[in-house]
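Backbone-to-sequence.
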């Protein structure tokens, strides 16, 4: 009989069907919530905003081990934890960049590492090594090579210590751990908050700990209903949305965010979003009417019923031949360049919009 669920780590109980950890029989290995997630993709108890990051970090600090920090490359800005070393004092950290296969192959691993090194410095984060990972949902040489690289890093940096896997919710952490363990025991889903407590496993003579995903309530993934998450989380390589503009234009990412561009001449707009998320382009002068009449219908998925409840962000001015990413956290980003006078972004008030030097 298991005391804890093998899939999410929560303590099993058979007293309250509406509470976490419920099982019809204490002989079960998986809680009812994990069973429904694994077999039907149903979310019976939503934990998108249920586990405080501080609580998870406290549990990690109680463990003696080297931290393997998984960061989703597609959702880089919402995955970074500023001054992470100060939150995990004394812990060696290895950065594992997941979902590399989602990004275009024209972005080389060398460019990714160089970009990440700069972003880590800006966020005052120090790591022992950077491992670029992807292909974890596939079998074959590429995924196996990454597994061997992580195993070698554990031998090099953890030595006789245990290893702790941590990362933001939906960063691909549990998928990676399943691959390392050569099993499918841990419950995985597109829904943030799937892992609920620390899960301990034996791994190559040491303990491996999988931990709950860190919470980020500024990401669209923490706000969007579970049935609509599949529209915004990419599972296939990105095909950039590319266009040239010569007049003021508005770009809608579903009904979740809108970018308005006022240009003085020619400008380039490249969008990096899930293939399932519709991008609508139109004249800026007609944008308010379009959102008033079609938000939640043609412009979907959406979290708002009108523009009135959305927050407005103003981008810094571009200089010369600069390229800038306009990042809607958890959703994707537009890369903009050219003769642009002004950029404003409207998004759900719970979602962070970030402006950064172009990654691609």
């Amino acid at each position: 009989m298991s005391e804890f669920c093998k899939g999410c780590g929560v303590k099993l109980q058979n007293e309250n069907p509406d509470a976490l950890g419920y099982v019809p029989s204490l002989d079960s290995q998986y809680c009812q919530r994990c069973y429904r997630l694994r077999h039907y993709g149903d979310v019976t108890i939503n934990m998108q905003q249920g586990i405080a990051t501080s609580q998870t970090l406290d549990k990690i600090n109680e463990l003696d081990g080297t931290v393997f920090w998984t960061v989703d490359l597609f959702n880089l800005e919402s995955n970074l934890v500023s001054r992470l070393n100060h939150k995990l004092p004394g812990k060696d950290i290895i950065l594992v960049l997941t979902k590399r296969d989602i990004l275009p192959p024209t972005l080389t691993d060398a460019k990714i590492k160089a970009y990440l090194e700069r972003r880590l410095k800006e966020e005052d984060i120090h790591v022992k090594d950077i491992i670029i990972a992807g292909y974890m949902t596939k079998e074959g040489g590429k995924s196996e090579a990454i597994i061997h690289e992580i195993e070698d890093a554990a031998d090099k940096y953890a030595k006789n210590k245990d290893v702790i896997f941590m990362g933001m919710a939906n960063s691909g952490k549990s998928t990676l751990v399943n691959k390392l363990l050569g099993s499918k025991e841990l419950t995985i889903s597109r829904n943030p908050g799937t892992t609920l407590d620390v899960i301990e496993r034996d791994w190559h003579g040491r303990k491996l700990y999988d931990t709950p995903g860190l919470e980020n309530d500024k990401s669209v993934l923490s706000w969007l209903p579970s049935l609509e998450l599949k529209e915004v989380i990419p599972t296939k390589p990105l095909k950039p949305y590319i266009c040239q503009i010569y007049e003021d234009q508005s770009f809608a990412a579903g009904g979740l965010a809108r970018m308005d561009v006022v240009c003085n001449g020619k400008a380039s707009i490249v969008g990096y979003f899930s293939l399932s998320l519709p991008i609508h382009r139109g004249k800026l002068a007609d944008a308010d009417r379009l959102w008033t009449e079609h938000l939640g219908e043609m412009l979907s998925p959406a979290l708002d019923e009108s523009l009135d409840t959305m927050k407005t962000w103003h981008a810094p001015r571009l200089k010369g031949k600069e390229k800038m990413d306009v990042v809607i956290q958890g959703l994707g980003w537009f890369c903009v360049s050219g003769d642009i006078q002004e950029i404003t972004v409207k998004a759900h008030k719970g979602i962070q919009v970030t402006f950064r030097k172009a990654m691609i």
